[in-house]
Amino acid sequence: MADKEYTIINMRTDRAKLAPEINRSAQLCYQINTTDPTSPKIKELLKELFHGHVADDASFMPPLHVLDGSKVTIGKNTHLNFNTTIMSAEVTIEDNVKIAANSQFLANNHDPYDREKLLTAPITIKNNAWLGAGVSVLAGVTIGENAIIGAGAVVDKDVPANSIAVGIPAKVIKTIPHPEQIKQG
User: What angle do CA 180, 56, 71 make, to 5 degrees?
Assistant: First the structure.
């Protein structure tokens, strides 16, 4: 954990300040997860959850679990499949990103010596990345443009653009030879 730049949140002193947004996000996730997924109301709830930082054409399949919607941005033509979990510090998911079911964005972690301190670092998923089912992305990671992350991978380090990474921890196994041929969107 030492090689990343973390923001420290002390839950002893900051819990009351964070609680309103966490509670608001939990209530909105509950509403999203109990609303007909074809209802136009879903788009309104998502805009509210993410404070408007979600593209109109982004799509989601409930259930969705978000700790702090104020710190999440979702780009154009991006799809988050069933059971996406976002433990928010700052999570930015750019345009044309495909996220399969049961994926997790874990932008926070506990200090190993003081469990009341959260260590947070931003997660960024660049344009046109594709994450397979059950992928976990840890705090401080950037997944590069056009990258593919294999199902079940745990991504604890940056993945370069045009790479394919798999495993626990995720390792780059291949570079996409002709990224210019990848269709955007």
Answer: 90
